[in-house]
Amino acid sequence: MNVVLIRHTYDPDDLAALAARVCYSSQSVNEIDMDGDQKEKLIKRVVKSGHHSVLEHVSFTYALEGLSRVATHQLVRHRLASYSQQSHRYTTIKENSFVIPPSITENKEALAVYKDALKKSMELYSRLIDMGIKKEDARFVIPQGVSSNIVVTMNARELLHFFTLRCCIRAQWEIRDASVEMLRLAKDKAPVIFENAGPACVRGRCPEEKPCDNIPQIREFFKTL
Ligand SMILES: Cc1cc2nc3c(=O)[nH]c(=O)nc-3n(C[C@H](O)[C@H](O)[C@H](O)COP(=O)(O)OP(=O)(O)OC[C@H]3O[C@@H](n4cnc5c(N)ncnc54)[C@H](O)[C@@H]3O)c2cc1C
């Protein structure tokens, strides 16, 4: 999997601070003057207080490459985002276009079973195409592990929500790996907005009925991300 930050709003922390300042100021936007410290304090206040609409002015566009359909299906459940996904109606699925979960890679016997299933389904896919069946129908025999590329745009408010759900240890490993990398890239460009981003336990109590045993390590990990 490859996660690329393609574009983002210019100076995201600065824009969020400006939008927040407008809410509390009678000055024209061109007259507003804040130093770095004031901007940082304001964004932190806004993020902590839940006044998150000001974060909607900031957006990030990523390309996620080589993600399985399992993971992209979970990704597109997030409705406050825009997506463009590689189509298996128009592109041909190749033998090497599959994600292999680490649990299977690490188990020799399971890996043989998995590879056998992929080989068989690819044979059936090719046979159907040779019979004149369109790719859009032939792909029905392809397993969910097939990978694709997807471009996603989310604003910073949705990203904070997305990171809360998908950076959590309870999220499936592939979408979690993708979201942790997305957070790392976003934090590099907007360190104040995303300072405390990540699973809920990074900011306080874990909301799960049975919290995991790794909360101190998880907090440490996201602090240093
Ligand atoms: C660990 C985990 C396990 C999951 N398991 C399952 C599962 O077994 N089955 C399953 O179907 N899904 C499952 N999901 C997906 C989950 O139910 C959500 O569909 C997905 O995480 C998208 O999140 P969301 O709905 O909060 O927010 P988004 O779509 O990202 O929207 C953000 C927020 O906007 C608001 N919002 C958006 N649309 C509406 C609306 N129509 N009405 C009111 N408010 C809205 C909500 O406050 C929402 O939280 C799982 C998710 C996780 C993280």
Short structural summary:
The chain has 225 residues and is an alpha+beta fold. The protein is built from 9 helices and 4 strands; from the N terminus they run βααβαβαααβααα. Helix 7 (156-166) packs antiparallel against helix 8.
Walk me through what this model shows:
The chain has 225 residues and is of the alpha+beta class. Helix content is 45%, strand content 14%. It contains nine helices and four strands, in the order E-H-H-E-H-E-H-H-H-E-H-H-H. The protein has helices spanning 12-23, 36-49, 69-75, 102-105, 108-130, 135-138, 156-166, 173-189, 215-223, and strands spanning 2-8, 59-68, 81-85, 147-155. Helix 1 packs across helix 2 (36-49). It is elongated, with a radius of gyration of 21 Å. The structure holds flavin-adenine dinucleotide. Flavin-adenine dinucleotide is lined by residues 77-80, 158, 161, 165-166, 170-171.
Descriptive key words:
4 strands, single chain, 14% strand, 4-stranded antiparallel sheet, alpha+beta, Gyrase A, domain 2, binds flavin-adenine dinucleotide, 225 residues
Topology summary:
Layout lengths: L1 E7 L3 H12 L12 H14 L9 E10 H7 L5 E5 L16 H4 L2 H23 L4 H4 L8 E9 H11 L6 H17 L25 H9 L2
Antiparallel strand pairs: 1-2, 2-4, 3-4
Helix pairs in contact: 1-2, 7-8
The protein binds flavin-adenine dinucleotide.
Question: What composes the largest sheet?
Answer: 4 strands, antiparallel
Alpha-beta content class: alpha+beta
> What is the number of helices?
9
β-strand number: 4
Question: What fraction strand?
Answer: 5-15%
Bound molecules: flavin-adenine dinucleotide
Mean pLDDT: 96
Q: What is the end-to-end distance?
A: 19 Å
Top-tier CATH class of the largest domain: Alpha Beta
Cross-sheet strand order for the largest sheet: 1-2-4-3
CATH architecture classification name of the largest domain:
2-Layer Sandwich
